């Protein structure tokens, strides 16, 4: 009998036995197809080329189409029982049954202890691969120590939650935000007065040929920070105080040839400010 030995983890020993040069379990055969090689067949059936040669009394790797090859090879591995193992979990790990393990190892009951070594047989090149087994049935290994309880460590959690509750109650009354000073002009816009939606542009007193003096006599060059708008007097009387959205409170102190109807021109100190303002639609309130 020929033996092939290798290790599985630290305790598994694989052996293959063949009768008449090789022994096969069952009548599992594979018919060689065109393009097959002994190596490809060995890979597909999870065995080695040497095992196939021995199982089929081959003296070389030459094979022919329609040739029937025996690919059913008995393999035996061993499993060393570890703490927490049961016969059921071991059977699930290697894809066999509990009764097979008991028969292979002459067991009369289901009791196992750590350190025992069991023979596990597989056939047809299906090597045992460790798989995560489902929850084991009630077949505990002797000397298995109960898992330590962790309940005391979790008990402080409710106390921590109770301590947090007073803090949450203390933080419940949220301070009421005070109106920002920046919002005061918006409040002015809500005062009684004539409200209009107008098209607003911007102008400066630094243009070429401009005197810088408004229609009502305000010298804008001498007062570059003065809030002044140009209006159509038939819509907004000259001298009126007007609140302009995005500009603030201004005096209707100027006119313009293009300022007709619901149009205004807001004064800004520099040309860059006028370009930034551009042309926009704004709401205004004529305060008086």
Polypeptide structure, described:
GO terms for molecular function: hydrolase activity, hydrolyzing O-glycosyl compounds. This is Peptidoglycan-binding protein. Keywords: Signal. Residues 128-197 are annotated as: Disordered. Pfam families: 3D, LysM. With 288 residues, the chain is α+β, with helices and mostly antiparallel strands. Among the domains are: 18-73, LysM domain (Membrane-bound Lytic Murein Transglycosylase D, Chain A), CATH 3.10.350.10; 184-286, Beta Barrel (Barwin-like endoglucanases). Helices cover 21% and strands 21% of the residues. The chain contains eight helices and 13 strands. It has helices at residues 38-44, 49-55, 87-94, 98-105, 151-154, 156-170, 184-188, 271-277; strands at residues 7-8, 12-13, 15-16, 29-31, 68-70, 75-80, 117-122, 194-203, 228-230, 241-244, 248-254, 263-267, 280-286. The strands form four sheets. Strands 8-12-9-11-10-13 form a six-stranded mixed beta barrel. A three-stranded antiparallel beta sheet has the order 3-6-7. A two-stranded antiparallel sheet has the order 1-2. The radius of gyration is 48 Å and the shape is rod-shaped. It starts with 6 loop residues before the first strand and ends with a strand. The model is unreliable at 1-26, 125-141, 157-164, 166-170 and 181-190 (pLDDT under 50).
